[in-house]
């Protein structure tokens, strides 16, 4: 049953992408749809990252200073908000995470 659902979703996805690719510029989307689709990447990334940060072990929220994902995410948000530099944000987030994870800062 699951295999059939996965194959069906894959076929639908391929069909939609192929249709848009073949139609090219003839497929015109309304402005409101284009504006709404601009938010899809941010929404998907948020849906993936937030549960990993707030409940890294999947057993409820871990809103403590012992959660390295949460501490690193807070550090990354602060760096991003103050500098707007993506590479620096990633580097600081990773450095804080690993330092917290392996006990240099967190224990």
From TrEMBL:
Record flagged with keyword Transmembrane: yes
Transmembrane spans: 6-24, 36-57, 63-80, 87-105
UniProt entry keywords in alphabetical sequence: Membrane, Transmembrane, Transmembrane helix
Sorted alphabetically, which Pfam families does this protein's record hold?
AzlD (PF05437)
- Which superkingdom? Bacteria
Say yes or no: keyword Ligase present.
no
Q: What is this protein called?
A: Branched-subunit amino acid transport protein
Organism of this sequence: Collimonas arenae
């Amino acid at each position: 049953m699951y295999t059939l659902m996965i194959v069906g979703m894959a076929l639908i996805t391929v069909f939609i992408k192929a249709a848009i690719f073949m139609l090219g510029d003839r497929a015109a989307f309304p402005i409101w749809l284009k504006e709404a689709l601009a938010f899809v990447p941010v929404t998907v990334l948020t849906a993936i990252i937030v549960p990993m940060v707030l409940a890294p072990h999947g057993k409820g929220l871990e809103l403590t200073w012992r959660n390295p994902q949460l501490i690193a995410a807070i550090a990354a948000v602060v760096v991003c908000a103050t500098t707007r530099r993506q590479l620096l944000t990633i580097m600081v987030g990773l450095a804080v995470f690993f330092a917290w994870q392996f006990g240099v800062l967190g224990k």
